[in-house]
From TrEMBL:
InterPro entries: MAGE (IPR037445), MAGE_WH1 (IPR041898), MHD_dom (IPR002190). This is NSE3 protein. Residues 32-135 form the MAGE domain. PANTHER family: MELANOMA-ASSOCIATED ANTIGEN MAGE ANTIGEN, NSE3 HOMOLOG, SMC5-SMC6 COMPLEX COMPONENT. GO terms for cellular component: nucleus. Gene3D superfamilies: MAGE homology domain, winged helix WH1 motif.
Amino acid sequence: QGDDGDEDFHLSQMLTLSQVQGNLERRSQDQVNQKVSELVQFLLVKDQKKIPIKRADILKKVIREYKDVYPEIINRVGRTLQEVFGLQLVEMDTKHHIYILTSDLPRVEGENLRRDNETAKLGLLMVILSFIFMK
């Protein structure tokens, strides 16, 4: 059954940009955006549970009848993960199509760690002052 998913993907992979655009026009933007949201949530849950993310699972459990716009959905998911969560979807195994999410955020160095303590105190101060202001 996994082979069927791969076969469907290879068909969608061979779609030209104009075919994908035509398929997108037949789908409502709300439907495509819903699938993007579902896939982002699916990927985040899989990553949190440290379960391998397989393309066959993505196609079977989330994308389903939207295989004709799979490339566009993946592009939007990649942008969303990058912009909102600072994560990047990386294909680890090209033969079995297994993905992982990696952090795209810069690593914090020792100098910046000391500032974080001050930032935390400042954040707490802002919350307290905001509370006083609201009362």
